[in-house]
Design brief:
The complex is a heterodimer of chains A (349) and B (427). Chain A has one domain: Up-down Bundle (Cytochrome Bc1 Complex, Chain C), CATH 1.20.810. Helices cover 70% and strands 3% of the residues of chain A. In chain A, β3 and β4 form a beta hairpin. The termini of chain A are far apart. In chain A, the strands form 2 sheets. In chain A, strands 1-2 form a two-stranded antiparallel ribbon. In chain A, strands 3-4 form a two-stranded antiparallel sheet. The radius of gyration of chain A is 22 Å and the shape is globular. With 349 residues, chain A is mainly α. Chain B has 427 residues and is mainly α. Chain B folds into 3 domains: 226 residues, no CATH class; 43 residues, no CATH class; 126 residues, Butyryl-CoA Dehydrogenase, subunit A, domain 3 (Up-down Bundle). Helix content of chain B is 62%, strand content 0%. In chain B, α24 packs antiparallel against α25. The N and C termini of chain B lie far apart (90 Å). Classes of the chains: A mainly alpha (349), B mainly alpha (427). The interface between A and B is medium-sized, with 24 and 22 residues.
């Protein structure tokens, strides 16, 4: 059987490459696991998402009721739905950790620039997954959060209005928005994510794990990817399943009340935690900054920061330079602190 | 547009300014001359100047009417004598007794009123004369309310205007100007505490606290132009305008004949009139404070019926509370119980219905809705029990799963150790 497959698929060639693959072992190795953990949670999302698709009905009339049916009537439907929601949030958390660890360890440097770029694209795809998936249960909070979120997109000069209409499928958040978001969530985003994920993983395999510039690569011990590193990854994934099961059983994801376009927006409405720092920033901005609309300026600034993320490896290049390293570390720490503080303030206030 | 054409056209600001001047001129020329207002507004005596000042906000002015449309005379004349020339139809200030006819000159004319407000009734004057106010006025009494007592004069506002004296939120205060004045009312030998009592009623709470303009105020029960206290026989009809179901049920109840026989006013006997309190379940039953025991005594049929109805209602309330409590516990623990909570509203509806059916004084009617209500509440309670059982199952399942998961992780960890020990030996 193995020979038959090998003759047709060259499995032994692939397994030879895998067997030869090694992972550096040093004091920062722990951060290598977050990429794999994010990938694992993505797989959990795909599996639970497919299971939810069996019962979910994407229309304003049926969406809420179908999710209610899943969590009350379908055997272990509550577990699948809660794991899907918790896993989505954990995936975004591990993705942020992965991003910052790659940033601080300078793992994006030559020749890994495209690995970083594909990773940033994946970050935005995952955030879009979160934004589109949040609306799908069609509950009150999601409805108004989507309204606010798309309104924010709508204030961008020139392209804002067409983007808002494109996202909503009209001027308001309606059943058309839900259908559209469902399409993005189960077709457009998974297809795009698969392509970029394949590129990202392929590039990681091609270049191997990066050794931080502060360590001398030749002095770093190495371990086999298969089976040593993979088995360690496996422990993390098994424990992640335990965490997801515990969260789903002890803190089942709430469904809330069905969306009602004519109801007043609930008081103190907030977006998902990963948007909270931006939302909080926009709240603090004055109405006018240098004669320009403060909110528009804030949104434009976030767009610029998003674009700057892409060019990080192209700015920090060449020989290791202590001064530049210090500047990048300060920028990274400040960004991390800013996100943390604003998120905490957003939750507390 | 080429440059030459552009240079020959007027700049936009000039055009806008010209249009504004034109609009102002047109507006000014559209205003009719009124020497009455021109003179009266300058007079020192407020009795003479106030009418001219108040008229600015008068609904009649907004419809293009002026002083002479009511008082006659010539508003184009330049002297007081010429303006108030009787030969030009000058009527002056009407006597109190003439006021209804004075207003009715236009307001009773259907053809004329159509030009201003086709939906406005034109029977106010004739209706007024059916009221206690109108009858007293006809009998020569001068201290009674006429049109201007309620609607004010010269500063008359539309009923829909929140500043109007007859806007729903202001009606009680308008009536109270006379009816809340004990000295004024003494001559007519009627009480003056109606408005004070009304302010404590369930109707006033709805009207003032909830700002529910559909809640009744004085005129909704007494009528407005035909204001009169409803007689004993007609009280139920008045209350039944809004509380139709209760009124219908009362008509079929054994109380109807008994009340008629004893000359008791139907709704008022139990609920009072101006100070109608928020109805409570304590009003029914045989315990101290219940209204039923005012007439019924232990051993009579009514006493037993009152006790039965109260017991059934209490049973339903207790059952709903129990179900709500267990569903809330399950909800707080993260279980999805919105559907049973929604279904439980069926029991609350049954309770509301049962409270209405009390007016039939029929145990059978009350039981007909309490029974199904108890069933619904029972299902809600069962749903709460099921949710808590499911929660317990989940937690036990989690404990077993976690043991299995940790065991699996331990196995992998041991496998790594074994593997790496072998690898280090082979090196």
């Amino acid at each position: 059987m193995q020979e038959w497959l090998d003759e047709r698929l060259s499995i032994s060639a692939l397994s030879d490459i895998a067997r030869k693959k090694e992972v550096p072992v040093h004091r920062y190795s722990i951060w290598y696991y977050f990429g794999g953990m994010t990938l694992f949670l993505f797989v959990v999302q795909v599996v639970t998402g497919i299971l939810l698709l069996l019962y979910y009905r994407p229309s304003a009339e049926n969406a809420f009721e179908s999710v209610q049916f899943i969590i009350t009537e379908v055997q272990f439907g509550w577990l699948i739905r809660s794991i899907h929601s918790w896993s989505a949030n954990l995936m975004i958390a591990t993705l942020f950790i992965h991003l910052f660890s790659v940033f601080f360890l300078r793992a994006y440097r030559r020749p890994r620039e495209m690995t970083w770029v594909s990773g940033v694209v994946l970050l935005f795809i995952v955030i879009c997954f979160g934004f589109s998936g949040y609306l799908l249960p069609w509950n009150k909070l999601a409805f108004f959060a989507t309204k606010v979120g798309t309104e924010i997109a709508g204030v961008i000069p020139i392209v804002g209005r067409p983007v808002l209409r494109f996202l909503r499928g009209g001027d308001d958040v309606t059943g058309a928005t839900l259908t559209r978001f469902f399409g993005f969530h189960v077709a457009v985003l998974p297809a795009t994510a698969t392509v970029f994920l394949a590129v990202h993983v392929l590039l990681v395999q091609l270049h191997g794990m990066s050794v931080p510039p502060s360590l001398k690569a030749e002095n770093v011990r190495k371990m086999k990817f298969i089976p040593n590193f993979l088995l360690r990854d496996l422990i993390g994934w098994i424990l992640a399943i335990g965490v997801l099961a515990a969260l789903a059983a002890l803190f089942p994801w709430e469904l809330g009340e069905k969306a009602d376009a004519f109801a007043p927006a609930p008081a103190g409405i907030k977006p998902e935690w990963y948007f909270l720092f931006m939302f909080q920033t926009l709240k603090y901005l004055p109405a006018k900054i240098l004669g320009m609309d403060g909110e528009v300026l804030g949104i434009m600034a976030f767009n610029v920061v998003a674009l700057l993320l892409f060019i990080v490896p192209f700015v920090d290049r060449g020989q290791e330079n202590r001064r530049r390293t210090l500047i990048f570390n300060i920028i990274g720490v400040l960004a991390l602190l800013y996100i943390l503080v604003m998120t905490i303030i957003g939750y507390v206030t | 547009m080429n440059r030459e054409e552009h240079n020959t056209s007027f700049p936009a600001p000039v055009l806008v300014a010209a249009l504004m001047v034109l609009a102002l001129f047109t507006f000014a020329s559209a205003q009719k001359k009124s020497s009455c207002i021109d003179c009266h507004v300058k007079l020192d005596d407020p009795r003479l100047s106030n009418p001219a000042k108040l008229f600015d906000n008068d609904v009649h002015r907004s419809r293009g009417l002026s002083c002479n449309d009511c008082h006659g005379g010539d508003p184009n004349a330049d002297t007081s004598e010429a303006a108030k020339d009787p030969s030009k139809g000058y009527l002056g200030k009407p006597r109190t007794a003439d006021i209804p006819a004075y207003c009715g000159k236009c307001h009773s004319d259907a053809n004329l009123m159509k030009k201003f407000n086709p939906s406005l009734r034109v029977d106010q004057e004739s209706e007024y004369y059916t009221s206690v106010h109108g009858k007293l006025l006809k009998s020569g009494e001068q201290k009674v309310a006429t049109c201007i007592s309620c609607h004010t004069v010269h500063g008359i506002r539309a009923v829909s205007d929140p500043l109007s004296s007859v806007y729903p939120l202001n009606v009680a205060d308008t009536c109270a100007k006379c009816h809340g004045n004990a000295d004024y009312m003494r001559a007519f030998k009627i009480p003056s505490d109606q408005v004070i009592k009304f302010r404590t009623s369930v109707h006033a709470k709805a009207l003032y606290d909830k700002q529910d303009l559909s809640a009744p105020t004085c005129n909704d029960c007494h009528g407005n132009h035909g204001a009169t206290p409803p007689g004993i026989a007609s009280v139920a009809n008045v209350c039944g305008q809004c509380h139709a179901r209760q009124a219908d049920l009362f008509q079929t109840s054994p109380h109807k004949a008994a009340f008629d026989q004893q000359g008791l006013a139907e709704c008022v006997t139990c609920h009072s009139n101006h100070d109608i309190a928020t109805p409570t379940d304590q009003m029914i039953g045989t315990q101290q404070g219940a209204l039923c025991v005012n007439c019924h005594t232990d051993g009579d049929k009514g006493f037993a019926a009152a006790a039965h109805m109260r017991t059934r209602i209490d049973q339903l309330i207790a059952s709903i509370d129990k179900s709500n409590e267990i569903l809330s516990v399950a909800e707080r623990k993260g279980m999805e119980v919105s559907k049973p909570k929604f279904d439980l509203k069926g029991a609350t509806d049954a309770l509301t219905h049962a409270r209405v059916l009390i007016h039939s004084s029929s145990n059978i009617e009350v039981d007909k809705v309490v029974g199904p209500g108890l069933n619904v509440a029972g299902k809600g309670y069962q749903a709460g029990l099921d949710a808590l059982a499911e929660l317990s199952f989940r937690r036990k399942g989690l404990a077993v799963s976690l043991i299995f998961i940790l065991f699996l992780a331990l196995l992998v960890y041991l496998k790594i150790r074994q593997l790496e020990t072998r690898q280090s030996i082979s090196k």
